[in-house]
Each structure stands twice: as structure tokens, then as C-alpha cells.
Amino acid sequence: MCGIVGAVSQRNIVPILIEGLKRLEYRGYDSCGVAVHQSGELKRARSTSRVAELNTAVDEDGIAAGTGIAHTRWATHGAPAVHNAHPHFSHGPGAEANSASAGRIALVHNGIIENHEELRAELKAKGYAFTSQTDTEVIAHLVEHLYSGDLLDAVQAALPRLKGAYAIAVFCRDEPHRVIAAREGSPLVLGVGEGENFVASDAMALAGVTDQIVYLEEGDVVDLQLGRYWISRLHAESGRFEAQQREVKTVHAHSGAAELGPYRHYMQKEIFEQPTAIANTLEAISSISPELFGDGAYRIFKEVDSVLILACGTSYYAGSTAKYWLESIAKIPTSVEIASEYRYRDSVPNPRTLVVTISQSGETADTLAALKHARAQGMEHTLTVCNVSTSAMVRECKLAYITRAGAEIGVASTKAFTTQLVGLFLLTLALAQTRGHLGDEQEAEHLKALRHLPVAVQAVLALEPQVIAWSEEFARKENALFLGRGLHYPIALEGALKLKEISYIHAEAYPAGELKHGPLALVTAEMPVVTVAPNDALLEKLKSNMQEVRARGGQLFVFADADTAIESEAGLHVIRMPEHYGALSPILHVIPLQLLAYHTACARGTDVDKPRNLAKSVTVE
Ligand code: G6P
């Protein structure tokens, strides 16, 4: 998703901007660009290929300077094309547009400006020529229009006109050592250096440049100059921008620049890192207690009478799995909602609900907005299960469980998902304990199973060659159906999501009992039906559902636990899972589905780590 890096320094900051973009690259983007203040002019390079190509263009054009901004774009308004790539320039009304070096204002933007059409019409009427279909260009022209010698004044005048979510960074030809940045709804950090200052959409982009980070708050505007910075925000009462003090934190942001090692793709590497990621996530756990989730957790857990889980994508399926655990083990009523639905829905708030957000990135706009919505309705007990300790989600929630999956580069989430499940299982046990549903013996048993998980996962990974054999056949299909029941229905959903995300095969998942109410009509010999078949209480029911498929000539591909007595025969292919794993079985069963999606995508030759149209961290609505 879109990324921003900006800098004001005495040295040439172009290598820092490019390196920053590279660190944000894994989030997904379709074009990139950089603009600097060089020899009294604005210069820029933009590209629809990779940041490495942008770097070559920058070198060839001799772009080097102390002040500049850079951007990776994930298209929302306007196709992925060079003319839509950021930075956008404004040349002033009536000026010849689209010249490479004649602009006065240069601007990058993350987020969406909802009233861009209205502003565009207004600026067009004033003589501004538009060269892109983006909402961003509107802001560049608006700032230019309001500029009369002081960039901060111009940006502060422009911001109240913008509706929507944004983070911006902007500089001006007439003020060589100054960048102004602002945020409202999209993340932005200030990096404080010695005699130089930086801005970025994520501290990770500044790793190795500065570890002195200010997390800008909603509505903050920051004026970056060489030896100083100044933060302000609009005060509703005075109607003026007033100075703000913000804490500078020392942040050891990891670079995200992981080596591929022996793997073909980051996704494959991350699938195989799951035993370590799970072990790391469990490292400090010697017993179950609410305090694993932060100070004050016991009091909150005692007070709550229900759980509301809010998340998107794969994280939503982690939440859907956790619902089964929370209701059966902790006996606490739980609902799971897709964040983008919940935030706009009339719901009945309950102040005694524990609001749990799940997010690998901690920056997903919809999940953050859903959290805000819950809080605005008086639901103050908030907890997040998140993989990034410095993220907005962790800062916004009272309690947190930080998973230790490490940086996940592949857009399709794998190790973040299984570690989320581990965090959510621990939450289940802690709530069960607080509510009197977890005896010492049960706690010891669950802990034993958790500690053995890395070994159990390793054994499942050894199934890879058998999954590869299946993937050849899947690669020739255009549709697939996934079935699961109970605790494994969300796993079937996650398996279908993985397959569609990276192989572009249309895949759907159903609770197996629903088959006869619709999807059975789709079943033919051309429709592979993947079935998640653990040896649990629903196995016999599931076998009946499998018969319904067989009777219609469907091809079953079954991941069956060791002792299920499901044997391969014509039209029924079986891969046997090493062991049945009780309540934690979903964590094992998702792994072959990840491998199936991965190898099918490889067989189809797709860009596995950066699937088309998708982004790793979705910071727009
Ligand atoms: C994007 C990613 C998914 C992820 C979802 C939610 O769609 O591609 O892998 O599951 O966002 O992201 P989050 O960071 O909140 O878990």
C-alpha cells in the first residue's frame, strides 16, 4: 500500500529516500516516484516498475539534493500509470502542465480525499490544469493556490478543505530547506536527526537513518527544517493552529529487509518459518495469566461479559476461529465482525464488551476506524493481537498481545495468521481462567500442547512434496471449493482466500453442512473440492458431506487426520496429517492449505509475493 518518505538535510538524501521506499516495498504498490529540490528547481522521476528501476532513473538523471519526498503508490483514483504516480507537481494556474522540472509545489499523499471532485472543479475554474486522475493532484494545486510565501501557512489553510483520510508531505520551490507533512487518518511519523529531519509513513522506512521517532497524532501538521521541527494542530475553539509537544521515542524498527535464503519466495520462507514464529510468540509464557495482555488486564477481564472481535482479511479468519475457542473454552459470548462493516453499522453497544482487534500490520485503516467507532460508543475495554509493537493499533488499545512472527513480506499472510491464532488461544485461556473455567490440570495440558506446536507444525511442513503433486492438478482449474466444519470452517475460508489471492483461481469456502443448500449445484468432475477433515466430533457428519460430493462425480482432495480411516480411492485423494491436535488443530490444518495455494500459484507462474491489485498493509478505506 502507499508509502511516504521525506527528508530535509544538508547531505544528498536521495539514497535515503530510495532505501526507505525499498523498505516499504513489500506492502505492495504499482508505481513509485521521487522529487527533490535541486538547483532552485523541482526535479522528479517516476516509474511503474520497481523501486530498483526508479533508482536507475534517478542516477541517470543526476537527481541529488538535500530536500525531497518519495512515494510508493497503490492505485485508488486513476490507473497505475506514470502520470498518476506521485509526487504530483503544481505549476500554478494556466502554466504548462507536465513539464519535468517546472513545478512550484511537490506533494505525495496516502489515503483518499473524498471531496476531490468538488475541489477539482473549483481549481479547474481557477485555471489549474490537471495531468492525472488522482485525488492527490487536487491537494497539490490547492496548496499552490493558497501559497503566498509561507508553505506552512498554505498547508494549514488547505487542510480544513480536505475531507477524508490522508497523510501528506509537501515542499516548495521557493523554500529549499523545508518539508511540511500532515496526517489525518493515515499513519505518519517524524524522524529526528542531527541537523536533519525526516518523515515517513512507517518508522521502518527510517531504520538505519534515525531511531528518534515521533508518532504524529491525528490532525498534526509538522514543519521540518534543517535543525528544527515544529508540530501544530488546529484548535477547534480558537480556530487557529497551535504548537504541540510530542514525545520523541527511541524505536528500534526492524528493517524488514529479510534475506530469502534457500527459498523461491518470501511466502514459502514465511510458511517454513512458522515453527520458529510460533516458538518465539510463546517464548515468555510459563503460565497463563491475564497480565500476559498488559497491566490492568485482570480487572478488565473480570468486568467483561462478552467479546467483540474486529478485523479484516486473514486476521478476520483468525478471529472467526477464536470465536469457537472463546465460546467453548472460556464460555464467553463472542461475535466477530468485518471491520469495514462494523464501522458503518448500527449495532447495540455494550460497555462490558472486550473489543479485540486483530491485525498483523496494526495499521489497517478499516480496523482502526472500527476500533474508534467502538470506543465512541462507550466500549472502552480494548485489546489488540498485533505483530507490530510500534503500530497505531497497539498505541490505541489498552491491552495488547504482540505476536512475534517477525516481518512478513509476502502479501498473503501465513506466519502472522498462525501466531495470531496462538495469541488468541492464550487470550481464550486467560479469560477462561478469570471466569473460573480453567483448572490447573487443564492449564497444564493446554500449555503442553502449545509448547509442542512448533514440532507438530514441522511435521506438517514435511507434507510439502505430496501437496506439490496436487498443485499441478489445481493449477489447471479455474474454480475450487473448500469445505470445513466447526472450528475448521474458518480454516477452509482461509484456504480459499490464500488460493484466490495468489493463484487467481476462483475459490469459495462453505461449512460442509451447507453444501446441499446451494454449492452442490457447482460440483462436477471439473471442480476440486478441498476438505479439511480433522478427527473431531464432526467427522462422521463431514464424511456424509463428502459422499454428497462423490455421488455427483466431484473430485475430493482431503486433508485427513492420521486416525480418520479415510482412504484414497477413485475421485478421493487423501493427504494424511501426522496427528490430531485437539483444540489447536486449526493451526496445523491451515498449513497444507497455505502450501497448496503457494505451489499452485508457482505452477501458474504468478507473482506470488506481490499478487496483482493487493497490498500488504491497507491504510486506506
Ligand atoms: C491485507 C493483506 C492481508 C491481511 C489484511 C488485514 O488485505 O493483504 O494479508 O490479512 O490486509 O491486514 P492486517 O494487517 O490488519 O492483519
TrEMBL record:
Domain Glutamine amidotransferase type-2 residues, every copy: 2-227
Domain SIS span(s) in chain numbering: 297-437, 470-611
Native organism: Roseateles asaccharophilus
Ranges in coiled-coil conformation: none
Subunit structure: Homodimer.
Name of the protein in question: Glutamine--fructose-6-phosphate aminotransferase [isomerizing]
Task of the protein: Catalyzes the first step in hexosamine metabolism, converting fructose-6P into glucosamine-6P using glutamine as a nitrogen source.
CDD domains assigned to the protein according to its UniProt record, in alphabetical order: GFAT (cd00714), SIS_GlmS_GlmD_1 (cd05008), SIS_GlmS_GlmD_2 (cd05009)
